[in-house]
Amino acid sequence: MTQVDPAQLAVVRQNYKDAHQDHVFTFWNDLSPQQQHTFFSQLESIDPKALNSIFQKATHSSQSTTIFNDLQPLTHSEVKSTTHSLLTEQQDWEQRGLDAIANNHVAVIVLAGGQGTRLGSSLPKGSFPNIGLPSHKTLFQIHAERIKRLQTLARTHLATKTGRSLDDVLMPIITWCIMTSGATHERTETFLKQHAYFGLLPENIIVFQQGVIPSFDFEGKFLLSAKDKIATSPNGNGGIFWALHTEGVLEILQKRGILYTHSYSVDNILIKIGDPVGIGHALATNADVTAKVMLKTRADEPLGVICHINGQVRVVEYSEMDTELAALTDPDTGEFVYRAGNVCNQIFSVDFLQRMPAILQTPDQNLLIYHPATKRVPFVDLMTGQEIEPDAPNGIKLELFIFDAFTLAERFACLEAERASEFSPMKNPDGLDSPATCRRDLERLHIRWIKQAGGHVVAIPGSLSAAGSESLLGFEISPTLSYDGEGLEWARGKTIQACHLETKDDAHFL
């Protein structure tokens, strides 16, 4: 193992000393040459002065008691809706979106850095095996199959539009980008390989890793997780903007001719991946950022709200929102005044994504500020060298939030979607936003699709009815059979016994 060059070491040491972070060298002389080499690589990759500035901005911002006197909700004219817009307008958006997908202009990006820790699993949330669906599918499989179905729909759309036979139209490609963290990266890659990428071509799947940022103690000093390592944590879902650049993903998307990306959180079981209506809306409005939102259902619902602060589009986190403002209702509609719930579902133009690295590299930029979170951070005691597992919060982790980029959009758009069709997250082991509610919401949606097609779903004889009970029928439609309720005309006038429908041949009629 090559030893660290003394001259280079001296320069790096001085950088840390100037930033008052040279305590990280406390155990340097105790390390083996190999440990020193590995540690030096990490030390060299960190700019301690810049991180001091980031820490100061983040903690100062969180401690600020500034009252935003100009807090205003989005107006009704600023929020288009998939439920209240004219049918012709929605059809136009969908056609535009399918055109873009058919021409390989759309990629999707899943934010998949989280583990299922709160669900009792250390696995990546996308591969969490215990959702309990009749099909036993994971979130990653559901997402992959929705992509496959949407590609097929776009191909059929293009063939119909151009008057060509289906055989004369190539299958479109929706590039699937998966942003992982250090905790989920290798396991995600292994999981996808083990399942043959669920039928997608591996060359059209890009797994890339979000960045990390050092963890601090309450005085702003770097914590050591080992004698030869600064403690780090993922830099939040807002790290997508830098990771797309540093991991070479943006360059790949450019070469592929991608114009728009749909980014979403991995834990939403109802997500309409690559949503052609949303993509078409972005195209129709020429928006470089489109946020898909859900109407808040209660004042204390844990969703941030998109609104205007001092004339800029911002998201106010639910924990920061004044309770009286959160409860305000519009007397004409009965809806909450601050109603546009942010659900981490957004469409970015590639042009916008290309502008972000330059903004992030701008010295003293105040556009994307890290958010501090007080956490328990395992650390090395500098006096004893012992590794400590704290019982109480002892440090600060910093995160970027993806929604902070909304204010940087030259053309921001907001599209309200129906919650029952598009939003059911899996965050808790039970109760709200749990595997149980995901199962319930997916089954309700699929039963509604059959009803809209003119059919009816009933329980297996002897089983409990879902009506008035927490029990479910056990009904599920594969994404490969239907993306959004289309292609189910064969159910018209039929009564279907609840089951898992991978194809229409799996239906049992009564």
UniProtKB/TrEMBL annotation:
Protein name: UDP-N-acetylglucosamine diphosphorylase
Transmembrane regions listed in the UniProt entry: none
Keywords assigned by UniProt, alphabetized: Nucleotidyltransferase, Transferase
Pathway(s) served: Nucleotide-sugar biosynthesis; UDP-N-acetyl-alpha-D-glucosamine biosynthesis; UDP-N-acetyl-alpha-D-glucosamine from N-acetyl-alpha-D-glucosamine 1-phosphate: step 1/1
Annotated EC: 2.7.7.23
Organism from which the protein derives: Linnemannia hyalina
Gene name in the database record: UAP1_1
CDD domains reported for this sequence: UDPGlcNAc_PPase
Catalytic activity: N-acetyl-alpha-D-glucosamine 1-phosphate + UTP + H(+) = UDP-N-acetyl-alpha-D-glucosamine + diphosphate
SUPFAM superfamilies for this protein: Nucleotide-diphospho-sugar transferases (SSF53448)
UniProt record similarity statement: Belongs to the UDPGP type 1 family.
Top-rank EC class of the record's enzyme: transferase
GO aspect biological process, one term: UDP-N-acetylglucosamine biosynthetic process
Coiled coil location: none
